Amino acid sequence: MTAMQHFLPKKRIASPPSPSQQEETLALPWQQNLQALRRLQSLPLLPSKVQTIVSDHKLDNYDAKWRAVLRLAKARAHIYLLTQDAFPSTKKFTQEVVECIYEACMELSACGKIPPIQFEPREEIPEIYVKKVYEDQSTFRGDIKRAGATIAENMLIRPAIDNVPRAEYKTKIKAAVKTLRSHSAFLHAVDTRGELVNFASPCLEHFITSYLFKDNRRLGNRFPADFEEIPITTIALFGAVLRNNIDEWKHGKYALREFTTARYLHVYKEIKKSAEEVAADPVHGHAFAELCRSWGGGSGLGWNSSDDDSDNDSIGVNLSFISQSIEHGTWPAIALHVSSSTDT
User: Taking 90 as the threshold, does the pLDDT of residue 49 lie above it?
Assistant: First the structure.
């Protein structure tokens, strides 16, 4: 042994990890749930969505043959988030992602193309592709947030500082945000007779219809059957995002505020609950149902290429009227149970 070798660390031959140690290394939520799904496969009489075959193979290459499948599967996963559950549990969404991948393979086969795996009987799905679709949910919600930020600024924030000296911008914006958040006024509208119209905010309408129907690539046009009328879950998600967009201005100037589950899941749930109560209301339910149909793709009355902010002159966001109504206690209290707390 040379003098140099004496100071070098001795090489150790790593022993292979035990099966239990291998499982401990799978720390990501989607990986943990894939393990759970595999364990469930050995149980009898499981629902079809649990009897899922998933492969442990690690594929480093983003195979071209999988691109079409992932594009279709992600779109189907987005539909689930919009129409069923915007904040699903890890286990529930992992199962849904697997179903979306098999459905995407079926769709390719129906178009005369050969999918990368068989769907009948079900061939194993490489784990890396389940991961890609699963992790896309945060990207999708981020995309909605970016779309809402522009709409909120143009339709809710900028009107509050029209013809106002720059020195007063901060004060006016803070006051506008307080008014919009109070009793969740940003979700609703006041008609020309001064009466409340639940969930008829022109900002919310513009946000939803433009995102879903603006061009042929949008989800509402690609999956028209899911959006003949706007689902309550969709209204709740876009409403929660809009609340986040408004919160970013609460100190009188823009400051990024992440749209996270921890901060906005309860807002989403409260908006969803309020919308369900309005829908079930014997007086206001009919108007709400008509609103959902008119915004949907089936009516032909939703988004069109000539839409702009002036299309909503009959139902507008009148901050002065709303502020005075709330101050004097005359703001109509019709199924408005969404939290009006000052923070989230």
Answer: no
